[in-house]
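Tokens in:
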């Protein structure tokens, strides 16, 4: 059991500090302008998900009067207050950064203008655009005190509209319009004037044309303000034994769309009577943390901000590189038969993985393919390769996790598609989320069945592989492949957990094995031998694992942590964690890979994994960590980690103050790890 009263940073507050680092990228003047505005979109999208999931959980706890202080580390009511303060502070910073960026964009001949800034010619263009593209998909709803307030969808932005008269001879009318960004772009690029580009938001296109929408109302002024509601995204699973798991997920998805409101964001300029009207109608009180914001909401759309203007306003393209061993017109099976291969995305091409599955789908020696699918791309080439394998007579088994948050509908679609084509589909494991990233290809060679295994840190998703840093190990190592087969056996028969000497598998053995590895480092430190641990994670939260790292530090084990997101461990406390250093890197690519390195008295042990060090990953999910045995791949992995650790440009120090200070370095040479790693993979020119 983990010790009580462990010094920890609350996970929610640590997450807010992480999103602050994303906001820092939007503020960073060295980041290209278009990328800065996209970081505002990423920040906004992150925050939306935080409210849908984490804040919603806290609000449930308050309503149910649960005693949640112990596992959350803080009283939920006090924690909600802290979250509210932090979010409002960040929102003010967000608005300032947005204004700064728009000013800088204007200097670069890109002007984001409102409906009040349109010239006569631009106004005519907007009117035509509105009539042709917008008006046909716009459906206003009139509001009053007697009618039922319409359902506000999560993820959608709305304009609340007031039709009034200055002489007060008529009662004001109210209306609601959903901004239809699910159908057309949020951004309308207007005709250039000389060298100047002009962009207007769809919200302002609607504002400009409101008189066309409401021609029959007696008013002499119109006001329109943005509002946005965020809802609880938790899926409630009922206990009806007569229903299949798929039916329960389907019902849960429908119920999620009607989830309880957890946040209202509104234009801070809105009239108080309009705000009170909305708050009453959506049944929110002041204790429900309404967030005053700027003129625009749903900034997640800014992730798709149009790339107009000069090329230097966006990041320089870094096309994925070919793996030196996987050249054209060579069988990948022949390569893997001789040696392990590790692919590192997005520096190296994800196409190699598709090529391998495509080759397997037509190879007459291949008997079967088994794969885990957690999040797949919208137009998935992985699934296409699996369907092609079925058509070529291969047996395909797909373990599809239907509870991959926010990807449930997509996964149900692909599950049905694969089933229709003849695949055996397994819907995860009851009580566990299947989060491992594996496939297993079985091939008949010289009368014997030979396995080729993939274990990775990221999803089988060609879209995210362009922006997420991840590792994929492909191996024919007999010991590893046999244990991967055991994991797939467990997925089809949950009573056969298996035993493992090589893989670290949760929820059965990973925690225990990791503790054993840390204990070994403690023993070495006590004996005066080299003792060190290097961890690269998305999140470090689990109390028992943090306690163990504190113990290791106290005994002299040197620990380096690279944690992108939540880090509940506090580094640098004298006598407790003064041998622990922790940094976080937020940059062009999203750091997603998990790597564990243990010194082992100089004979280092390397693992890559799908698992973070969170209770959910170690105890409530099926996760796999695979050892890296190939010495060349170990060198490659060490070079990657050392380069990340040497970053003095995008690395922030993770400390108790959570103020995201950039790492100070005495080195004269600036190191930006992601650029340096890309250069590591570039072929050496003769």
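Residues out:
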């Amino acid at each position: 059991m983990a010790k009580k009263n462990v010094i920890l940073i609350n996970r929610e507050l640590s997450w807010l500090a992480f999103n602050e680092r994303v906001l820092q990228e939007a503020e960073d003047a060295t980041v290209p302008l278009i990328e800065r505005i996209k970081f505002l979109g990423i920040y906004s999208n992150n925050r939306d998900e935080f409210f849908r999931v984490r804040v919603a959980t806290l609000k449930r706890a308050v309503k149910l009067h649960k005693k949640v202080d112990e596992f959350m580390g803080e009283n939920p009511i006090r924690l909600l207050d802290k979250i509210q303060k932090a979010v409002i502070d960040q929102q003010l910073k967000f608005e300032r950064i947005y204004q700064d960026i728009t000013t800088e964009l204007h200097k670069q001949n890109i002007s984001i203008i409102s409906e009040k800034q349109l010239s006569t010619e631009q106004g005519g263009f907007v009117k035509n655009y509105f009539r042709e593209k917008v008006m046909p998909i716009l459906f206003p709803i009139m509001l009053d005190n007697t009618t039922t307030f319409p359902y506000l969808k999560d993820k959608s932005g709305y304009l609340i509209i007031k039709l009034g008269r200055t002489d007060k001879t008529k009662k004001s009318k109210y209306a609601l319009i959903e901004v239809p960004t699910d159908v057309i772009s949020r951004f309308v690029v207007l005709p250039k004037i000389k060298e100047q580009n002009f962009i207007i938001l769809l919200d302002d296109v609607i504002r400009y044309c409101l008189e066309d929408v409401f021609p029959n109302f007696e008013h002499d002024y119109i006001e329109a303000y943005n509002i946005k509601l965020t809802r609880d995204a938790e899926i409630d699973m009922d206990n009806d034994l007569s229903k299949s798991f798929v039916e329960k997920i389907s019902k849960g998805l429908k119920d999620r769309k009607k989830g309880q409101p957890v946040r209202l964001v509104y234009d801070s300029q809105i009239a108080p009577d309009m705000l009170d009207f909305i708050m009453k109608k959506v049944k929110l009180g002041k204790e429900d943390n309404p967030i005053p914001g700027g003129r625009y909401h749903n900034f997640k759309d800014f992730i798709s901000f149009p790339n107009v203007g000069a090329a230097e306003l966006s990041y320089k393209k870094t096309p994925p590189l070919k793996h030196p061993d996987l050249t054209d017109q060579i069988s990948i099976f022949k390569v893997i038969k001789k040696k392990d291969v590790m692919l590192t995305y997005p520096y190296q091409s994800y196409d190699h993985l598709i090529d391998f599955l495509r080759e397997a789908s037509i190879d007459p020696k291949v008997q079967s393919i088994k794969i885990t699918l957690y999040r797949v791309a919208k137009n998935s080439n992985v699934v296409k390769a699996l369907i092609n394998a079925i058509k070529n007579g291969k047996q395909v088994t797909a373990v599809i996790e239907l509870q991959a948050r926010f990807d449930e509908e997509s996964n149900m679609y692909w599950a049905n598609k694969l089933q229709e084509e003849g695949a055996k589909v397994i819907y995860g494991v009851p009580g566990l989320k299947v989060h491992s990233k594996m496939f297993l290809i079985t091939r008949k060679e010289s009368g014997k069945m030979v396995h080729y295994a993939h274990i990775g840190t990221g999803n089988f998703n060609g879209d995210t592989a362009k922006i997420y840093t991840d590792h994929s190990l492909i191996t024919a190592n007999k010991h590893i492949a046999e244990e991967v087969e055991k994991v797939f056996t467990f997925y089809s028969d949950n009573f056969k957990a298996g035993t493992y000497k090589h893989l670290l598998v949760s929820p059965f053995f990973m925690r225990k094995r990791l503790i054993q590895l840390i204990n070994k480092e403690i023993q070495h430190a006590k004996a005066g031998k080299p003792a060190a641990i290097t961890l690269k994670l998305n999140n470090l939260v689990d109390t028992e694992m943090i306690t163990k790292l504190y113990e290791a530090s106290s005994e002299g084990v040197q620990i380096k942590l690279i944690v992108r997101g939540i880090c509940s461990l506090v580094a640098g406390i004298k006598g407790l964690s003064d041998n622990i250093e922790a940094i976080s890197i937020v940059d062009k690519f999203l750091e997603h890979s998990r790597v564990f390195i243990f010194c082992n008295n100089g004979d280092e042990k390397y693992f890559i994994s799908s698992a973070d060090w969170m209770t959910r990953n170690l105890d409530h999910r099926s996760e796999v960590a695979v050892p890296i045995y190939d010495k060349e791949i170990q060198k490659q992995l060490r070079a990657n980690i050392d380069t990340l650790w040497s970053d003095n440009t995008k690395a922030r120090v993770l400390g108790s103050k959570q103020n995201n200070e950039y790492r100070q370095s005495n080195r004269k040479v600036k190191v930006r790890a992601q650029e340096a790693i890309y250069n590591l993979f570039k072929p050496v020119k003769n």
